[in-house]
């Protein structure tokens, strides 16, 4: 195994047909979000000698889009256990239903983490009314992957389609949760533009906070991100593609050309994620 891609949106035909923002995303990212069957996605990762953390986001309350369900993600993951690590998703606005569903997803379905997207789910991660969701993750010792920074979803449309960026700011949103749940592993997703320095600071300050480098080509990483990844944060940053928006091949190719230290590269690609996900 060469790498673990910690940020992969399962983009099968069944998932994409439920996404009302698909056309907008294709316009913004200037790419067609080609549906792949789960088997095709698994084959792609197998060929690349990678594992992939897969998920679908439950954003029913904020978006009105129906959620395909954690059972679906668990089924895909269990059909391809050599490559896929399935994460659950719950819509925090569903309250006790969300807490119960997360408990079920982590125990009965065997999912191994939680994905949250505060922009499309329209919630402040540090709002205490949603804290029971983190309690479940902490209890089962699984990480929570939380989107941070700008999102391509809604970008370029009037009013950003009602999506607010204020939910995605690392300080206080991620910093508060990390302080209140020191036993919870949090992965802040993406370089977190325009608050990248805040995300670096939180990862530096809180031992339980990590970052994934998904959604951006390493070609465009800011010098400070590369500097911290090469030094103080070398055990805390992880490769993620944000497939299907960015392919793992493209990310890796641009990573090779970026000025990362040779001894740090395997940590970013593989070792940090292996530790955070508790893989052998
Ligand atoms: Zn993503």
- The largest beta-sheet arranges its strands as 4-5-6-7-8
> Percentage of helical residues?
40-55%
Terminal residue distance? 12 Å
Alpha-beta classification:
alpha/beta
What's the name of the CATH homologous superfamily? Answer: Metal-dependent hydrolases
CATH fold description: TIM Barrel
- The whole-angstrom Rg is 17 Å
CATH class category label? Alpha Beta
Q: How many strands in all?
A: 8
**Which oligomerization state do the chains in this entry correspond to?**
single chain
**Can you tell me the CATH architecture?**
Alpha-Beta Barrel
Residue runs with pLDDT of under 50 for 5 or more positions:
none
Give the ordered list of helices and strands.
Answer: EHHHEHHEHEHHEHEHEHEHH
| Percentage of residues in DSSP E strands | 5-15%
Cofactors and ligands: zinc ion
Annotation keywords:
280 residues, alpha/beta, TIM Barrel, five-stranded parallel sheet, three-stranded parallel sheet, 8 strands, binds zinc ion
Write up what this structure looks like:
The chain is an alpha/beta fold and 280 residues long. It has a single domain, classed as Metal-dependent hydrolases (TIM Barrel, Alpha-Beta Barrel), CATH 3.20.20.140. It has 13 helices and eight strands. It has a five-stranded parallel sheet. Helix 6 runs parallel beside helix 8 (131-139). The longest helix has 13 residues, at 265-277. The termini are close together. Bound molecules: zinc ion (ZN). Zinc ion is lined by residues 7, 9, 215, 242. Residues 7, 9, 215, 242 line the site of zinc ion (ZN).
């Amino acid at each position: 195994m060469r790498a673990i891609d910690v940020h992969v949106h399962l983009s099968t035909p069944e998932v994409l047909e439920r996404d009302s923002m698909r056309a907008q995303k294709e316009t913004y990212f200037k790419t067609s979000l080609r549906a792949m069957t789960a088997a095709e996605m698994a084959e792609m990762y197998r060929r690349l000698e990678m594992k992939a953390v897969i998920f679908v986001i439950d954003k029913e309350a904020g978006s009105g889009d129906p959620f395909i369900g954690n059972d679906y993600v668990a089924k895909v993951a269990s059909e391809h256990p050599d490559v896929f690590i399935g994460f659950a998703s719950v819509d925090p606005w569903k309250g006790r239903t969300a807490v119960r569903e997360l408990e079920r997803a982590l125990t009965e379905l065997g999912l191994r983490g939680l994905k949250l997207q505060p922009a499309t789910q329209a919630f402040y991660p540090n709002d205490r009314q949603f804290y029971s969701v983190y309690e479940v993750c902490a209890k089962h010792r699984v990480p929570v992957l939380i989107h941070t920074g700008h999102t391509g979803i809604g970008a370029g449309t009037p009013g950003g389609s009602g999506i607010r960026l204020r939910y995605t700011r690392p300080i206080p949103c991620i910093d508060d949760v990390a302080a209140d749940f020191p036993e919870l592993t949090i992965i802040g997703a993406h370089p977190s533009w325009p608050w990248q320095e805040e995300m670096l600071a939180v990862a530096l300050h809180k031992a339980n906070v990590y970052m994934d480098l998904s959604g951006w080509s390493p070609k465009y990483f800011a010098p400070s991100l590369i500097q911290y990844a090469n030094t103080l944060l070398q055990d805390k940053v992880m490769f993620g593609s944000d497939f299907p928006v960015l392919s793992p091949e493209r990310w890796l190719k641009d990573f090779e050309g970026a000025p990362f230290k040779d001894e740090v590269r395997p940590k970013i690609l593989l070792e940090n994620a292996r530790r955070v996900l508790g893989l052998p």
